[in-house]
Amino acid sequence: MIPRNVLRIWHEKSLADALLRISDAACIGLAFAVAARYPKTLVDANYWLAMTVTIITVFLVGELVGLYCSWRGVATSREIAAAELTWVYSGAALLVVGVLTRFTDHLPRGALLIVVGTVAALFAATRIVIRMVQRSMMAKGWNTRKFAIIGVTELGVRLARNMEDAPEFGLEFSGFYDDRPTARTGDVPEGVGEKLGTIGELVDLAQHGEIHRIYITLPMRAEKRIRHLLDQFADSTASVYIVPDFFVFELLHSRWTDIGGLPVVSVFENPFYGVDGMAKRMSDVALASMALAAAAIPMMVIAAMIKLTSRGPVFFRQKRYGLDGREILVWKFRSMRVADNGPVVKQATKGDSRITPFGRILRKTSLDELPQLFNVIEGNMSLVGPRPHASAHNEQYRRLIPGYMLRHKVKPGITGLAQVLGWRGETDTLDKMSNRIQYDLEYIRQWSLWMDLKILCKTVFVVFSQQNAY
Predict the structure, then answer these.
(1) Is 307 found in the same domain as 230?
(2) Is the residue at 6 inside a domain?
(3) Do residues 106 and 161 both lie within one domain?
(4) What's the pLDDT score for residue 6?
(5) Mean confidence (pLDDT) of the chain
(6) What's the rounded Cα separation, in Å, for the pair 116 and 114?
(7) Which among 77, 239, 316, 395 is placed 20 to 30 Å from 336, CA to CA?
(8) Other C-beta atoms within 10 Å of 99: how many?
């Protein structure tokens, strides 16, 4: 099955991007105008100079993080997150410069807070409104263009469905065109469109300006045929796109890039690059720091109980694989009488005699995982991600489960999608481990900050249920 979020339509920069810059400048101007009414605010030439510098800084930072690229086909939440992070980075840079130059000394702290809060709110609000207006206008047929798909294929059907789900693209589907008989292609699924004719007929329509965009969804092995099609459509003004049939591979958060102008596409990629990576790291550090502050006293009590109830160290650091398969040492409260950390590590099982009485309580409540907050602060783990397995288990399962090592394209997590969906605890069969790995890879494909927050919330209920915890 083709993941719904894999096909993303990236359009050229348009007037909307310029309007977005104007909108952001207006948001900053409005915020400074509101702050000017704050008591004791000195509104002079320096005040409006500060506003101008703020606008320029946001534009520069926005270009660096890709805020003003085309966001068509991308979730509104991700665009808002990029805008807010741009504002955070810009504000931090401006604050440092302002303090060092003493430029902000004459600005009341209340006025600064008004600017910060107002801009953050307006950046989010304006993007929501712009998306709503775009969707409404294009759904009514304004500024729409007709497009056709060459190839009654699984890829072509998915493309048609994606277009139907995104009226803001402003594209009206004409239909499928394919020279092959229905016996070879199969019927077009109901509700997706219909096969209208041959490719020759489509060429004629394109030459007469009746079709504006054409998407070729033939398999990559049909290179000669695709080249012939391009020669035919060169005698028209239609925009032609080739949709690569990359779904023959197991894509993992693929993205386009270029090397010296030569386009390349990643097949296996870490999703946490650029703004997304910074956002995840900032949220990890902030939430882990708060969690450590709240858990400091309970952790001291747990440490004392471990020392009083069994012999051995308080902490156990086990070798596990981290980002890019690099070995890391994961902190845990010791819950067993042994500390297996070699080439063979036996998984904990129900009623395991190696577990201490107090350790059983720790494992049931997952309190033995609390020290992994230190790993998060250190930077070799995340709050949410694929759960790290002992190095010995990695070496065992990487030979048995295709794609097993792809889970190490991201940092391991204290909790993860597999755990909140019931794949927690012992993996005594290969099927159980395979299912866990599939959810780990699904997390990497579908990742968003909102997904992380949902997983963290669900983890609380999973811990209280104590399901598969021993």
Answers:
(1) no
(2) no
(3) no
(4) 37
(5) 82
(6) 6
(7) 395
(8) 11
DSSP H helix total and E strand total for the chain: 15, 11
Enclosing domain of residue 83: 15-139
Q: Examine the domain organization and report whether 284 and 244 are in the same domain.
A: no
pLDDT of residue 103: 73
Token pair listed for 340? 């297996």
Cβ-contact 66, 79 below 8 angstroms: no
Cβ-based burial of 364 (10 A; exposed 0-12, middle 13-18, buried ≥19) = middle
pLDDT tens digit sequence for 155-188? 899 888 888 876 666 678 899 999 888 888 888 8
**What is the rounded distance in angstroms from the CA atom of residue 104 to the CA atom of residue 29?**
17
CB of 462 within 8 A of CB of 391? no
Assigned domain for 4 exists: no
Say if residue 156 is in the same domain as residue 75. Answer: no
Domain membership flag for residue 197: yes
Q: How far apart are CA 35 and CA 110, in angstroms?
A: 8
The 10 Å Cβ neighbour count of residue 313 is: 12
What is the distance between the alpha carbons of residues 36 and 26, in angstroms, rounded to a whole number?
A: 15
Angle at 116 between CA 38 and CA 21, to 5 degrees: 115
Question: Same structural domain for residues 297 and 364?
Answer: yes
Could you tell me if 190 and 303 lie in one domain? no
Same-domain pairing of 301 and 337: yes
Res. 12 pLDDT band, cuts 50 70 90: very low
- Hey, what are 195's tokens? 């096969």
Same domain, 317 and 459: yes
The two tokens of residue 365 are 């409540």
In a domain, 317, yes or no: yes
Token representation of residue 246: 């990359």
Give, for 457, the enclosing helix (H) or strand (E): helix 449-465
CATH value at residue 152: 3.40.50.720
The mean per-residue pLDDT over the stretch 183-198 comes to 86
User: Is 444 a residue whose pLDDT tops 70?
Assistant: yes
Give percent of the chain above pLDDT 70: 82
pLDDT score of 169: 66
Domain tally, the chain: 3
Helices 274-309 + 449-465 axis angle, to 10: 20
Within 13 Å and on the Cβ side, how many CA atoms surround 8? Answer: 13
Instruction: Answer with the one of 139, 169, 202 that is the final residue of a domain.
Output: 139
The verdict on pTM exceeding 0.85 is: no
Q: Which residue has the tokens 């808002």?
A: 80
Closest CA to 442 of 406, 415, 393: 406
Cβ–Cβ under 8 Å, residues 195 and 178: yes
